[in-house]
Amino acid sequence: MSEWRARSVLFDLDGTLTDPADGIVGCIRHALESLGAPVHSASRLTRCIGPPLRESFAMLLGHPGEAVVEEAVRRYRERFEAWGMYENRVYPGIPELLGEIGRMGWSAYVVTSKPRIYAREILDHFDLRRFFAGVHGSEMDGKLSRKGELLAHVLVAESLVAGDAVMVGDRAEDILGAQATGIASIGVTYGYGNLEELRAAGPTRICEDPASVLAALQDHYREER
Fold first, then answer.
1. Segment 138-152, tens digit of pLDDT
2. First vs last Cα of the chain: how many Å apart?
3. Crossing angle, helix 172-180 and helix 147-157, to 10 degrees?
4. Residue 100: inside a domain, yes or no?
5. Distance between CA 122 and CA 120 in Å, rounded?
6. Domain that holds residue 70
7. pTM of the predicted model, to two decimals?
8. Cα–Cα distance, 100 to 26 (Å, whole number)
9. Which residues are catalytic?
10. Other residues' Cβ atoms within 10 Å of the Cβ of residue 193
11. Band of the pLDDT at 11, cuts 50, 70, 90?
């Protein structure tokens, strides 16, 4: 079976479907400031877009212990739930990409380390949820926040075959999680993982914009016909 015989396309959310930088950076800064902790540069905080939030706070706070990390997460969510999740924008070309995937008869799913409840709210806010057969994310307590664990869960929950799926994401965690579960992957460079990070992770392909993702999938679709 070809590694590109995909019929299910699994999308990361932050940095792949939407650009959440203003909201996420603002919420991390709010949490750090309210704890009296040093506030890092915007560029360093931006690197926290993608990986599990608890891991990012542990790093930013110098690994202070679980209780402090949980308090940072609580303060982050105060601002995020109020308005931070809406300080966000859909990348140009994403609705067109998702629409074409649907017209090709493929199924699309969201697979994000963000809590599932937030992912659904964001997709509804931007009128994107209609494109997806399922939305999967972590639990509020951090369960399923690692991408490999989450992908394994999605394969079972949605009765998907790993060899018939492609993971699309902007960070190494997306690519490595896909590899761990036998899923082909597309790394996208328009998000928050740079080309060097993606190449080191070893995706099946690298694309520079949503149109390139669509072209890669359409090529495979024609080949399989």
1. 999 989 999 999 999
2. 14
3. 50
4. yes
5. 5
6. 21-86
7. 0.91
8. 34
9. 12
10. 27
11. very high
